[in-house]
Amino acid sequence: MGLRLRLPLAALAALSLGSAQTLAVRMGGETRRVSVETCVEWAVAGEMGAAAHPEALKAMAVVARTWVRSNRGRHRTEGFDFCQTTHCQRLDPSVRSPAIRRAVEDTAGVILWRRGRPAAVFHSADCGGRTASAGEIWPGLARPYLPSREDPWCSRSAPGGWRTEIPWPRLAAALGLPGLRFLAVERRSPSGRVLSLRSDRGPVDAETLHLRVGRALGWSLLRSRFYEVESRPLFAVFSGKGEGHGVGLCQKGAMEMAQSGADFREILAFYFPGTTPGVSARGLLWQRFSAGTLDVDTLEGAPPASLPFAPAAWEEARRRSGLDAPCRPRVREYPETALFRDATGAGGRLAAVTRGCSIHLHAPARLAAQGRLGPVLLHEMMHVLIEANRRVPLPEWFEEGLAEYLSGGSTRAAGRARVEALVRRYGRASVLDFLKTGLPQ
């Protein structure tokens, strides 16, 4: 009695543009393969941190994911997709934040679209009260949805002014202008950012000044191009506001909007007017169905294929195992293989992947039609319980075999045979205790 998804074929075809199973990320001299969603989680942690409001974190997750989708292969000639620095996005895998993980999961697969294609997106820490247009910062990148506009939300927050003094010899060395002793703003962009300066050694391009000072003296000195310059006998004094280029999402303003009651869609609409968030160009988002002790997420317009099976599978998993979990399980249904791959980094042959209390279900309508949906859910619910009760590192074969054993799955699975051997030798209760103590020598 399989349920059929009522999404148009065109919507399914557009769910993931240029999807790949994993991304190659350069981390500290080593290239690591990670899923798109893992990369997004690291980017939100590195670029915004865990202390932001949940809706601001969701907005940042959508922006980070859109950037990943639009810029895959940025370091292709070097053999990987992204570096972990601000040249791409600052990636921080060390932050383990439930709030960030929730924001990424709540927006899984959602990017910003413009006329059927992923939008070009940018973000900065603080726009200084007015965003910059993409074209004024990077000629050739002008987009109607990346305008310069007053940002009352950023202005409402605490002032972000800064001041720095750079001795003339250090500034002259950074710019390659020996004898430099005078600097003044000559031309500004429509948003007020400095475009060019004049000096006693000739004209100076503001972008060149920013990059050379940053590379030679540190990126904390000139935090933005929103500044005034005063030439004093011993040093140049830069007094400015904002942090970063100011294009696109202002993190400071986004946090103020969220604290004022705006959700992530309203935040994105303010900073990227004319774009549509969604897992497809049609703007499809996730919808949630709650059933007792768990939730099922599907795309808008798609019926929850697993809802009739999931609650019973959860209760049966707890009954058979004698285990419980402190979290509320979530089943997320992916009707299309490319979206499932991007979210999990797993191959298209897998029926599901479980991480923590989240079960990512691949083509559930097909599983239901094949009569496999109930057994697959029971197996994955066992993984939720196993992970919730594991206190020590355990080999993959043991966790998979224990899930097969407890759920009554395939007797031909190698892991299950090994777990059954352990049960015969130590007893079922002792084998379950291995989740806390580890496997015996």
Write up this protein.
- By secondary structure, the chain is of the alpha+beta class.
- It has 3 domains: 17-154 and 246-276, no CATH class; 161-240, no CATH class; 286-437, Orthogonal Bundle (Neutral Protease, domain 2), CATH 1.10.390.
- 38% of the residues lie in helices and 19% in strands.
- The chain contains 17 helices and 19 strands.
- It has helices at residues 9-13, 36-47, 54-71, 98-106, 134-137, 152-156, 168-175, 206-217, 251-259, 264-271, 310-321, 337-344, 364-369, 373-389, 396-407, 414-426, 428-437, and strands at 23-27, 30-34, 82-83, 111-114, 117-118, 123-124, 161-167, 183-188, 194-199, 204-205, 227-231, 235-241, 249-250, 276-278, 286-291, 294-299, 330-334, 352-355, 358-362.
- The strands form 6 sheets. Strands 15-16-17-19-18 form a 5-stranded mixed beta sheet. The chain has a 3-stranded mixed beta sheet with strand order 2-1-3.
- Helix 2 (36-47) packs across helix 3 (54-71), helix 2 packs across helix 4 (98-106) and helix 3 packs across helix 10 (264-271).
- The longest helix is centred in the N-terminal third of the chain and has 18 residues, at 54-71.
- It starts with 8 loop residues before the first helix and ends with a helix.
- Residues 1-20 have low confidence and may be disordered.
